[in-house]
Each structure stands twice: as C-alpha cells, then as structure tokens.
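Input:
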Amino acid sequence: MSNAAEGVLAPFFDRRRRFSALKTVTFFALIAPALWMAYKVSTGIWDLPSPSVNLLIQSGYWATGILLVSLAVTPFRKIFRQGELIRVRRMIGLVALVYSIAHLMFYFAVRLWDFRFMANEFGTRPTIVIATVSMLGLIALGVTSFDAAIRWMGGRNWNRLHNVVYIVTALAILHLLLSLGSLSGLPFTLTGYFFWLMAWRALDRFGFGDRPMVLALLAVGAALFTALFEAIWLWAYQGSNAPGGGSPLATLRLNFDVEWWGIIGLPPTWKVLLVGLAIAAAAALWQKFGSRVPRATTPRPWSTWKGKLVIALCGAVVGGAVGIILNPAPPPDPFAGINLDIFGGGLGEPAQPTQPAPAEWPRIADILAYGAAGAIAGVGLGALADRRTRKALSLGPA
Ligand code: HEM
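Output:
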C-alpha cells in the first residue's frame, strides 16, 4: 500500500495494516456529530435563529466532550482491562482538534471575519484569551502526536508534553464556564466528568484505579463536587442571573426540585453520580464475569504516610461537604439593617438589626466535626484495605 493510501485508510487499519473493527467503529462514532450538525444546517431546525452561532456552540461542546473521551481512554483501559483501547486514543485526540479548529472557523464567521473587532475582543474578554491558550496547546499536541515526533523527542519528553492535555482540557472547560450562557446543565456536567477523570488519576497512582468499591466512592465524591462547584461558581460568577437567584443554597436545592428537572432535564449532580455508579457497577460485573485477565496483585501503598494523608484529606472534603449540606446557612433576615421603627420616633436613628445575627460557630463546629469524621473514616478504611491486601499477598503487618 502506498503511503498516501495508508494515510487515507489509517482510521480503518491497525499498524500491521489489518482491518480494525475498533478503529472503524470509533471513527464513525466520532464523525457522527459532524454529520448531525450538517443535517441540522440542511433542515434549518436549530435552538437559536443564527446557524453560525449554533454551529459555534455545538462544535465547542463536541470538541470539549471528545477531549474528555480521549482522557477517559486510560481509565477505561485499566478498569475493563482492555489494553487495545490505546490504539484509538490518538485518533480521538486528533478529532477533538479538528472540531476545535471548526469551532474557531465558526467564531470567525460569527464575527464576520472582522479581525480588528476580534483583536479588540481578545483584549477585553479573558475567556477568549483562555480559549486561545487552550487551542494553541491542542495544536501543539496534534502536531507532535505522530510516531516521527515521538522518535524525535524521545519517549520521556513526549510524555511530559502530552500531559499538557489535562491543562488544555481544564482551560477549555474554564472557557465554557465563563460563557454568560453557562447557567446550568451541560457545562457543570462536563466539569463533573473532568473532576472524575482527574480524581481517578490520583487514585490510580495509589493503585486503586480498578477497584469497583473505590469507583463507587469516586462517583459519590464527583457528584458532591459537581453540586458544590455549581452552587459556588454560579454565586460567584453569575450572581443574580443564576437560576434560583444566585444564592448557593438555592442552587443546591434545585438539585431536588422536580419542576426544575422538567425544565433542564436531570441536573448535572445526578448525571455525574449515575454515570460514575454505572462505571463502578460495570467494573464489578466485568471483573467478576467478563475479564480473563486476573486482578493485579501489587501491594497497595495504603501504608505510606503520603497515602494516608491523601486519603484523610479526601475523607475530610467528602465529610465537610456532607456537613455543609446537612447544616445549611439560615436564610438572611430580609429586614436586617432596616429601621422599622419609622412611626415610633426612630426616624433619623442609625439602622439597627431587628434580630441578633445567628451564632455561626455551632454550624462551623458541626461542619468541622463532619470533616474530621470523614478523615478518620478514610484512614480507617485505608487501614482495613491494607490489612486485606497484605493478608492476600501474605506480606505480614507493615
Ligand atoms: C481561539 C480559540 C477559541 C475561540 C476564539 C473561541 C470562541 C468562542 C466563543 C466566542 C464562544 C461563544 C460564547 C461566548 O461568547 O463566550 C465559544 C463558545 C464555546 N467554546 Fe470556544 N473558542 C475557542 C476555543 C475553544 C476550544 C479549544 C474549545 C474546547 C475544546 C471551546 C469550547 C467552547 C464551548 C463548549 C462553547 C459553548 C459555550 C456556550 O454554551 O456558550 N472553545 N467559544
């Protein structure tokens, strides 16, 4: 086969030039969103009246989503023991770059190719600067993704550069969150998935990446993170534009408001929880019934002080989050600071709070107690797991 023909047919063949069903299916799955967008253009049925703005937003979401899928390849390889998935990682990353370049072209089209206007926008909108850095990072990764670049750079340097993909994705998500339209739903769901992926990496370093029980706890942690992040981000960045009026507590409550579900669909918190739990359940079933590869029997570093510290911190964060949810701040007194005594000769007197502010300390102490309990529970579970592993490997006490 000539080099050119090989290049064109690369999505369908493996390195030994044999037809690869995995690569072919992945390729068609990756171009499906582009076909769907082309179909939408042809029918003219969009959410927003301008096709270019729709294409700008849709291509941006697909670029971010596909980037997250490329980060999910390693976790899925390890959890489901499917080493061959590595063969599609480069293709997924490159397709994310193609969607990003298309997104940039739609941006130019929306701005009517007026580069003076765009230069001004670059100087005034931080989200565009962040997006540009993310885009440049993606291009650097794409250009160096070929075998020749790996040979030229050496495996170690190449790996170091390609770890930049996590920063590139974080910036893409920040760019998405900074959009004034990011008031609920997908932006926070994608943020939750990104958190899951980063936390999984940390857990995998300690040897827990393939444990169904740990994956179930990760699902709960990622869902809690999503709920708290959404509440705090909307309060800090969108203020009163946010659904629920911008108070973090109101945003947290929306997660349980079924009428709100009717408007935006299942809230991000529950989506992240369900997807995380589905992965944990699939891992448990697959490892029990499907996989032919035995579970790794390397000792887990529960016993190192660093491991214990990380587990304690994770436990404290989860415990603290539970504490915050169970001890919500009381709603502010709407009349605080307003002098209501207008008919009783109080006119002209400095405004007085009508009620003393509720004491904050008991609430803070409660949250800290939950955090401490979480940390202790984490270390306890770690010690238990350590003992079990050591017993299984007949290593004796640490
Ligand atoms: C130079 C590069 C880029 C530019 C100039 C750019 C510009 C824009 C603009 C103008 C919007 C419309 C929303 C707004 O005005 O804030 C947008 C939306 C979006 N962009 Fe980008 N972008 C760039 C790169 C990227 C990259 C690399 C990604 C992801 C990999 C991305 C993902 C998104 C997403 C998901 C949205 C939808 C946000 C929404 O719902 O409004 N962008 N982008």
